[in-house]
Amino acid sequence: MNKIVVTGGAGFIGSNFVHYVYKQRPDWQIIVLDALTYAGNKQNLEGLDTNRVSLVEGNICDNKLVDNLVSQTDAVVHFAAESHNDNSLQSPWPFVQSNIVGTYTLLEAVRKHNKRFHHISTDEVYGDLELDDPNKFTDKTPYNPSSPYSSTKAGSDLLVRAWVRSFGVKATISNCSNNYGPYQHVEKFIPRQITEVLEGRTPKLYGTGEQVRDWIHAEDHSSGVLTILENGKIGETYLIGADGEKNNKEVVELILKLMGKDITDYQHVNDRPGHDMRYAIDSSKLRTELGWTPKYTNFTEGLKQTIEWYKNNPNWWKPQKTETEAKYAKVGQ
Ligand code: NAD
Ligand code: TDX
């Protein structure tokens, strides 16, 4: 395998993956297919040799374009999606279109050209856990998504499984927990709070802030995906997680502390309708069967580096900030 198409490679995790593969596999060619929606940014790929990484601006629902690109490649790694829960509550249609119809379009192309396919998904397909539930999600946990976003991701996972079983498509799936790191859009929890503080305002906690997310650095997600792409068993689902459970209040307090502010200097805002309480990943299958381990086991260190990145890159995030905050203000968040 030395030529891959990365869909959504100009977004947050996709671009982290492109940078990771670029370093780890110097003989690979990477074609990024990205529609450059509000969440995609060409700057995320700056500094990479264009002889090795090319960007095709286009939509994964465009079957002619997809068919042509897939025919020229060895494998497709599929990150492209509408990814933000809050947006899916305001306007679900783009989620159905990109996440379900887009995945269908890619599956038909890899089926036709008999190419390897890796599908990126989320732990949110499993619904949520109680705070005191001793169990974590595994690949055997029944699907029970809550939001328009997570239900379209669940739908796309089921399409992949059906294309493996019915048509013999050579696909694998990974479901990962909440990512943090550089290049994450300021609509998401951690970058929103860091940039609120950088702009002299206070972090915004939905509801009580007791909800738990299982944080993993985007580089560890990338190493997990590359491991599965190269060594995963066709038809299998692997969960990627780094044992990083924290409640939202703790994360906000840590951001404030690391940025030299009073840890009580945040505000509670309207809760997210249908807000999932807790996600937690059991990644032992990936660790024991494929030998993967995360590198960023110290969340405080990873968060410090992420804060530094936002401090050093205001030109990257400032253009998104005003519009994002205006959207939140409309719903009291
Ligand atoms: P993102 O919103 O930052 O990036 C998505 C990228 O996909 C953007 O570059 C966008 O332009 C592109 N895109 C969207 N619709 C497209 C379309 N129809 N055609 C072509 N390109 C399109 O998202 P992210 O946070 O990087 O998430 C990437 C993937 O990882 C998604 O599939 C998401 O469900 C999954 N995931 C994310 C997380 C997380 O914490 N962010 C956790 C687990 C899984
Ligand atoms: O301002 C905020 N205040 C707040 O308290 C925002 C933006 C969020 N939150 C809360 C909601 C969640 O409990 O923080 C938590 C994390 O929120 P998001 O960053 O929106 O992530 P989440 O909804 O958990 O989904 C993320 O992880 C799974 C990604 O956005 C998804 O793409 C991924 O599938």
Q: Short description, anyone?
A:
The protein is α/β, with parallel strands linked by helices. It has helices at 12-24, 63-71, 85-90, 93-113, 148-167, 189-198, 218-231, 248-258, 284-290, 299-312, 314-330; strands at residues 3-7, 29-34, 53-57, 75-78, 116-122, 171-176, 179-180, 204-206, 212-214, 216-217, 237-240, 245-247, 267-269. Strand 1, helix 1 (12-24) and strand 2 (29-34) form a beta-alpha-beta unit.
What would you note in describing this structure?
With 333 residues, this protein is an alpha/beta fold. Helices cover 43% and strands 16% of the residues. The protein has helices spanning 12-24, 63-71, 85-90, 93-113, 148-167, 189-198, 218-231, 248-258, 284-290, 299-312, 314-330, and strands spanning 3-7, 29-34, 53-57, 75-78, 116-122, 171-176, 179-180, 204-206, 212-214, 216-217, 237-240, 245-247, 267-269. The strands form four sheets. Strands 3-2-1-4-5-6-11 form a seven-stranded parallel sheet, sandwiched between helices. Helix 1 links the parallel strand 1 (3-7) and strand 2 (29-34). Bound molecules: nicotinamide-adenine-dinucleotide and thymidine-5'-diphospho-beta-D-xylose. Thymidine-5'-diphospho-beta-D-xylose is lined by residues 83-85, 122, 124, 178, 188-189, 192, 204-206, 211, 213, 248, 272.
